[in-house]
Recover the amino acids of this structure.
């Protein structure tokens, strides 16, 4: 049996690096080696007393998830619990990981949509961005469309005006014909909130494509 990668020695903080390249390289190495024990070590160290190690571990985990989501999917419940963490980096990192897991376990993510949407309401911009990605993914699955779309509309109505154009653009390709009128209504109701003309034009362009 091959020895598991010594992940703690390869984290950016262990190498006294301030960039993310070592963490990305470590994720590649873990995926290539299909090293589930390395993933388990990263998961355990999300509770490390050293915040730099916590930062690196969540980063490597969602980088692994972006490359091979099945390797982190078994830890979905832990990531869900981190959505309530007081430390913002773990909170939005967990939402990023859940976004990856939606690719391989959409039902598991769907079953926890209320918690995900609640975290998006309370969380940072990055937390909300990844929650929108999750909702858009689930909208493309017929049995999940109605609930995912309803939660997306709620987010669109409450989101900061600066984020609205990006969210509208993400929603556009996944919105079925029967839901387009409601999306148009929600977007039109927010147009006066958008001060920057270029951002307002982006939302208006989405509305035209929906009509």
């Amino acid at each position: 049996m091959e020895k598991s990668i010594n992940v703690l020695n390869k984290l950016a903080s262990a190498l006294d690096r301030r960039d993310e390249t070592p963490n990305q390289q470590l994720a590649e190495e873990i995926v290539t080696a299909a090293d589930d024990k390395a993933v388990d070590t990263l998961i355990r160290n999300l509770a490390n007393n050293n915040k730099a190690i916590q930062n690196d571990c969540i980063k490597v985990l969602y980088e692994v998830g972006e490359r091979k989501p099945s390797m982190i999917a078994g830890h979905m419940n832990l990531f869900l619990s981190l959505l309530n963490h007081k430390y913002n980096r773990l909170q939005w990192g967990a939402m990023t990981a859940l976004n990856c897991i939606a690719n391989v376990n959409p039902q598991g993510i769907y079953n926890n949509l209320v918690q995900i949407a609640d975290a998006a309401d309370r969380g940072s911009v990055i937390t909300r961005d990844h929650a929108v990605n999750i909702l858009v993914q689930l909208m493309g699955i017929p049995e999940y469309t109605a609930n995912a779309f309803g939660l997306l509309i709620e987010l669109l109505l409450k989101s900061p005006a600066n984020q609205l154009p990006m969210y509208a653009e993400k929603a556009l390709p996944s919105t079925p014909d029967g839901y387009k009128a409601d999306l148009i209504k929600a977007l039109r109701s927010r147009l006066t909130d958008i001060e920057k003309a270029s951002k307002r034009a982006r939302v208006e362009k989405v509305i035209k494509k929906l009509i």
